[in-house]
Amino acid sequence: MAALPELKGDGRDLRIDACRGIALWCIFLDHVPNNIGSWLTLRNYGFSDAAEVFMFLSGLTCALAYGKARQSGGWTGVIGRTLWRSWDIYVAFLLLMLACAIIVHLAGSGHLADESNTRILLEESGVTLAHAAILQYRPVNTDILPLFVLYHLLFAPLLWLLLRAPNATLGASLLLYALVHVFGWTIPAWPNGHWFFNPLAWQLPLVLGAWWIIEGKRFRPWVTSRAALVPAVVYLVFSLIIALSWSIKPLEVLLPQALLYPTDKSNLAPLRLLHFLALAVLFVSFVPRDWRGLTTPVMHGAIRCGRYSLPIYCLGVLLTLASQLALLDISEGLTMQIALSVGGVLVMIGAATLLNLIKIKPRQQPHAKAVEQPTRFELVINPMTARVLGVHIPPALLACADEVDRLKMLFAPVRESGCSADPVPAVAHAFGPPAKNVGSRTVEPAP
């Protein structure tokens, strides 16, 4: 059975946190409508966007986290952690839904209520909350949270299958993905009848990420080879031209109409999946684990956001609503768009920094140094004290320096074990049993 790698101490791969943090920034920028900041994201330069990146990275982190739980607590620990995490996300989703409804209600904006899909929650609260409780209703931009509730609930059996038959499990995931596109399978939702992110299709990048943790070392040489790199670059150039044609009219005239809108995000269209895989090939080939760019201030901010992905994602949804209100009520100008984009990202970084400070324990702070432990003990023999304690020291031992050195060696177990060790057994072993009666005290023989 395959074994999951174990991260120890500073072995955490910062690339995962950095990419997840950047994906959170991109999701926020893309969610704000008519935002100039979205030109910094993947959406305008290819078929896929930050959603595929975020889902794949979630598979990576789930495999690592639950793999460590399995190593320490067995499958009981894995199931416990998956249930607890799923509950966390479920509660976060419900609270976020209520927060969105409150913001829209206080803003009094009917247009925003329609765009955020909260009008039905405000007008038919009872039935809407009932459907939200079973994950059938979701305001706009919260769709991904119910998805993760389901995936975390099912990750324990998925991990069990991946550890025993990783390639067969990935093949089954690909088969399910293909059947979704052939037969149109989905899970019921309310009130529009379908999930924006079809769980049966979007499971594939999650499974792919978990599979990469288990089988990635075997396939990495092929992924980074010229045979994979050249087609990936060609495909990325092709998708770049198509994506630019959506915004640049002269390019649209030059391309066949069938190629203009080839992507279906709800069911994870194959062209989107291939675009993400091409990006992954380039990333693995050119961004090493010890990449120096990870030490820059921008990457530090991304890493912090990536480590607290759930609260930062929820914050991003609320910032999206606030940005929409600002654009509607104050100004839709370029300056406002830039200010909202930069300000939103800075708020996310600040919140992640605050969460990091709250989570750090005193023993983890850099200035809290450990108390230096003694590493050496010297034996000083006082013949008079030894006589009172009933310890007999042969005269020849005191007269011979070599014998004194040998006596020090008897205390090596005490020195090696540090201050926490009990020196009495070693002393007793060195000198033999003490006298039974010393004054009124009774001294038991050493074991």
From TrEMBL:
Keywords: Membrane, Transmembrane, Transmembrane helix
Transmembrane domains' residue ranges: 45-66, 87-107, 144-163, 170-190, 196-214, 226-248, 268-287, 308-328, 334-358
The UniProt record lists the keyword Phosphoprotein: no
Signal peptide region: none
Transmembrane recorded as keyword: yes
The protein, known as: OpgC domain-containing protein
Species assigned in the record: Bradyrhizobium septentrionale
